[in-house]
């Protein structure tokens, strides 16, 4: 016991939001120390890693035949085990530098829809990266803790976490997910809807990150008072020549309607299946939004309109999961019950 406490005293423990779009890391005593894209640039033979994170994102779509960029996470889970493990190792070494005297403990956020096989892959990838101990926490639980929701009370609270690969809807009570629904439609699907709209309606080919930029700059889920517009540069499908157009928020709102309505349908399904006592709590407490999708203008109003419930959005929903996982890390002995392993 004394030896274990000594190890914990010298270890720099880590909380990680291993997301489809971005990876965020929190270290005990320092807070959030890393926020970079979950992207790896590799040599064409797959042997050498050229860049990871922000540097790799700058290369995305701009590489030559000798380098390719990949996103090793898909739909919130590992798509390429080898490069996910190497990406985790890179990020951990980057934040700890030479402080590897004692291997750290790590808490990682995972989607509620994760399978046992996918869960095992996350644990193995983390262990191979050099940590001594791995614990998993469901992303909506971490997001709820990050939003200061009293998850340990015998009281129902609903949270919607819209990440890059998955959207999780969870009703939390007594330190556990009492009821959850999940769909692998989230930020990436919204970006792809914009890319597809531009190709079909404007005959313009653009990359997925241009779709993401458009969503961030003028994406709306509900009509706004101030009209928004942005210039979009891409390749004309008809002429094969680089060109640009200007689109407005109304066009983007129509383009992203389908994935947003799918996410809202999951919310409605969860509400329909919620026991009466928990339903009464949700009616009083409202719904909390988290994740990058929460930044879409007017999404809270759209959900309020469809559910007739009050929707709350934190100041920085992108940090919800890693903040919550960090809180668990800081008080692990008293909060370890919220982890699923």
Overall domain count? 3
List unreliable stretches of 5+ residues. Answer: 2-7
Which percent band covers the strand fraction? Answer: 25-35%
Structural class: alpha+beta
Rg, alpha carbons: 21 Å
Number of helices: 13
Strand order of the largest sheet: 3-2-1-9-10
Query: Any idea what the shape is?
Result: flat
The helicity comes to 25-40%
- Total strands: the figure is 18
CATH fold descriptor of the largest domain: Nucleotidyltransferase, domain 5
List keywords for this structure.
18 strands, 341 residues, alpha+beta, five-stranded mixed beta sheet, Nucleotidyltransferase, domain 5, disordered N terminus, 40% helix, 26% strand, Actin, Chain A, domain 4
């Amino acid at each position: 016991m004394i030896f274990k406490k000594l190890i914990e005293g010298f270890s720099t423990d880590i909380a990680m939001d291993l997301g489809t779009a971005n990876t965020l890391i929190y270290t005990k005593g320092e807070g959030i120390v890393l926020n970079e894209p979950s992207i790896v640039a590799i040599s064409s033979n797959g042997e050498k890693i050229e860049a990871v994170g922000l540097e790799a994102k700058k290369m995305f779509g701009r590489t030559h035949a000798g380098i390719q960029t990949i996103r090793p996470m898909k739909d919130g889970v590992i798509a390429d085990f080898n490069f996910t493990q190497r990406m985790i190792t890179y990020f951990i070494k980057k934040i700890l530098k030479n402080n590897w005297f004692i291997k750290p403990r790590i808490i990682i956020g995972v989607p509620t829809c994760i399978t046992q096989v996918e869960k095992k892959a996350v644990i193995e990838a983390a262990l191979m990266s050099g940590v001594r101990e791995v614990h998993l926490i469901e992303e909506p639980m971490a997001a709820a803790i990050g939003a200061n929701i009293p998850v340990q009370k015998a009281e129902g609270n609903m949270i919607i976490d819209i990440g890059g690969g998955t959207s999780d809807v969870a009703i939390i009570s007594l330190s556990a997910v009492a009821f959850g629904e999940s769909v692998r439609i989230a930020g990436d699907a919204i970006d792809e809807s914009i890319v597809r709209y531009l190709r079909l309606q404007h005959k313009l080919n653009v990359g997925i990150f241009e779709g993401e930029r458009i969503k961030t700059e003028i994406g709306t889920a509900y009509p706004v008072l101030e009209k928004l517009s942005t210039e979009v540069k891409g390749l004309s499908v008809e002429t094969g020549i680089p060109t640009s157009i200007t689109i407005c928020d109304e066009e983007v709102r129509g383009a992203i309607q389908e994935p947003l309505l799918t996410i809202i349908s999951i919310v409605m399904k969860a509400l329909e299946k919620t026991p009466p006592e928990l339903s009464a709590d949700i009616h009083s407490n409202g719904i909390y939004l988290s994740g990058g999708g929460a930044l879409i203008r007017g999404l809270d109003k759209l959900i309020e309109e469809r559910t007739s419930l009050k929707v709350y959005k934190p100041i920085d929903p992108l940090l919800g999961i890693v903040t919550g996982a960090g809180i668990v890390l800081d008080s692990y002995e008293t909060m370890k019950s919220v982890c699923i392993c």
